[in-house]
Every structure is written in structure tokens, then in C-alpha cells.
Predict the structure.
Amino acid sequence: MSRVAYVNGRYVPFRDAKIHIEDRGYQFADAVYEVCEVRGGRLIDERRHLDRLGRSLGALRIRIPMTRAALGIVLREVVVRNRISFGTVYLQISRGVARRDPAFPAPDVAPSVVVTARPLNAARIDALAATGIAVVSVPDNRWGRVDIKTVGLLPNVLARQTAIEQGAREAWFVDQAGLVTEGASVNAWIVTQDGKLVTRHADHAILRGITRTVLLDAVKGEGLSLEERPFSLDEAHKAREAFVTSATQIVMPVVRIDGHVIGDGVPGRVATALRHRYYRYAEAG
Ligand code: PMP
């Protein structure tokens, strides 16, 4: 079956899906995006993803190109046309196409909107979660507003590549104070020896992950104790458990950090339980 993408008002064959070379997303990374999980053909946490999209667009003063209801229809249509049961839907909105000049185009131009969807291999992700993943640490050299979900992801690209080249699956960014901010495409968590969950508070230094937000509800609902504060690499090395969260992996146990074995070297009890209970707290639309 051939894939279909949505590009600026049209559903087109994936191979023909194109954006102009002077699109500001291409020229300046002047664009924002969202990745939403699709499960059983339904969008998971669409409301929260579209809320965050609105905040990202607002922070960059990019015009909201269509109503939320219309955007929801497009997302669903792309999922259906690509027959995605389990996978992701990707949405990108750039400031639009204009003569190459860093300042905002005047007069305003229409934002570019692209939506694609693709299947994920659930068995492969579950197999990874059953063994846990390795992460490596890298210096956090990103700009100061990574809470805005822009496509300016070069440090994340390089960090992930470093991880792969070192036989790990994810990279954790560490700030100048030696504190873990988040992963290249995930939020970072530990469980301390006395059983407290710790994840960095959401300020401008991390992306406020939707999975992270839902998990905060799950942690409360399951009666676990939580501290939203930074933690150091050293604290992570000594943790009982570590894990990462994102819309594509939900809760993914971490069993090695920079070669240090975490806990017993197998996925922890808390991470595994939260992975299983996650969908009690998420919204399926
Ligand atoms: N941090 C970063 C840097 C990310 O790119 C992502 C995934 N887009 C996340 C955290 C996790 O966010 P979410 O739970 O919304 O997928």
C-alpha cells in the first residue's frame, strides 16, 4: 500500500510530498513539530499534544494555520489513509516560504503544514523494554529554550549519533553544573535507593514531554513518591532504577549509563509497572 502525506491542504503520495527550498523550516529551522502515538488506530493524548503545539507556535509567533478541529481531522485522515494501527503521526508547521532573510517575513506568509504517519514495530519496542537500554551522557550544548518544540535538533542529532556509535540507544544531556537535563529525544527519570521517583522540573531547559506529564498523573495515582528536581550523573549511577519517557517508547527502562550498571542491570520494578499502567492515565481519542 502506498503512503500518503498531507502538505499544505492536499493529500499527496508520499514520494511526491515536497516543500519549497525557501521554506523557513528548511532555511532556519523556523518551525515546530509534534509526534503523537497511534494505538489501535487512535491518537493518544491528542489534546495535550495540540496544547503544546499551540504553546510552541505562540512562543515563536507563528500564526496558527487552521482550527484545532481541522488539524485533528487532518491528523486522523493521515492515520486512516496510511492504515496505521500502531505507529506515530508527525506534524510540522513552519513560518512559511519567503525570500531568505532572518527577520519574520513582512507581510506575513502562510505557514507550511506537513503531516505524515508511519507504523512502529510494537514487538521490537516491547523486546527492548524487556531487556532495557543503555544510555551515554553528552554535554548539553543546546539553546536556552528547548521547551519550545522546534525542528532545530542538531545537538540532539549529534547526541543520538554519539550514543549509537558507543553501542547505546539514547544520550542524556548534562548541563554545566553536572546535572542531567533530559535525553536527546526523551525525558530522563531515576528511582532512588529509598524508592523516590526523580525527574527534572519542567523549565526552559527541558521539553515538557507529554508522556512525562501523563506519567506524573500515573505516579500520583499509583501512590508513588515523586521529586521534581534535577539529579546528577553520579546520583543516576547509584540509582535503583532509571528510565526514559517519550510518545514512541512510553516508559523505557535504562540498565546502563556510561557503562555503569544501574540497579541489578535489568528493568526495574517501578519502571515496568508504570509501563504497564500507562494507558490507564493517557487519553485515547
Ligand atoms: N525531550 C526531547 C528533547 C524530545 O525530543 C522528546 C520527544 N519529542 C521528549 C523529551 C519526550 O516528549 P514526549 O513525551 O512528548 O514524546
User: Anything to note?
Assistant: The first strand starts at residue 4 and ends at 7.
